[in-house]
Amino acid sequence: MLSFKIKPKTILLLRELTKRLTKTQILIESLEAQELEFIKRNALISNIGASTRIENAVLTNSEIDWVDTALTSDGKTTSFENQREAIQDKLSKDKERSIDEVVGCRAMLQLINQQANNLFPLTEVTLRGLHKELLKYHAPDNYHSGGYKQVPNSVVRKVKMSGCPVKEYPVLTTSQPGLETEEAMTALVGWYNNTLKVHPWTIAVAVEFVFRFLAIHPFQDGNGRVGRGLFYLTLLQSPDDSISSTISYLAIDRYVEVEREEYYAVLSRCSDGKFIADPTKYAYEHFLNFMLKVIDCSIDDVELYRDKFKRLNSLTTSQRVVLTCFKEQPELRLQAKNIVEYTNLPRTTINDALKALIKNKFIQKYGRGADVKYQLLF
User: Fold this and answer.
1) Model pTM?
2) What is the pLDDT of residues 254-301, one digit of tens each?
3) d(Cα 203, Cα 20) in Å, to the nearest integer?
4) Which domains occur in the chain, in start order?
């Protein structure tokens, strides 16, 4: 069972959220496959972008969309290794680490989405495997990929100011490497397997599971991204259909990123800034209320993605050709003359297409007159 008692006020919030998830489930079941796939892909890209940017990666969602398209064109698991140099050249060499982190996070989340039901009961081998999947494309991390930490680490808030190096601020002192970490992880996995399928509030189970994981911080690096992935895994493994059948369509991490400062403050408040071997001593309610809020916000995005799908389908052939020009160059701000060269369409057709794409919120206009440029929006 849970290591804490949920307050009556929070139970009311859980019930209200369950009602919203049930309505979302009914909606999802009424949609056609093409629209569902569009919503799911948009949510996945948003989650990849948010989870990696929380750790100070720099790729935009538009760039991640382009990477995902490039990596799904041949459907092969080795496609990134085959295309690494081309992707790095496209998005610039200074984004190399961010690209590796994005592709690794994408691989981990895809595995979670595709294999969730096969990963229960959960094992420490599975957790190590998810960590290995996350880090497998960044060679400097190979030495600790899939293994528990060998030196102390901590939960830190990373802040990147323009023109300045990344600064780290401590949030939570974690478990000591070795026996303390190993015992805590064994206890956590055992608790999870004994609790998930019998407790009525899966979201509360996910909150305790992920918070305890983060407080342990078992891996040398990548714990935040794995922890956010585990939150999805827990909800996908939920016995409640209204949760397990809707979670793949929700960009929860988008709102964790938006509320990043609160996210770190909540983690600190739950623990008073330190790992505690007795899991009943944590104040999980703070984290639970935070996650209820961000899940609630993410449900609203389903309608936003549906609206985007309708706007996309309303475009004319020439408008789609111009949009493709932007999608293949998400890192650039383009002028009309660039689009003429790329598409061979008449200038008047391109001008009309640009107006339509701005109106439909697919591109953003920058500047005025002869210097006006346009860039893709996600």
Assistant:
1) 0.95
2) 999 999 999 999 999 999 999 999 999 999 999 999 999 999 999 999
3) 14
4) 8-312 (1.10.3290.10), 317-376 (1.10.10.10)
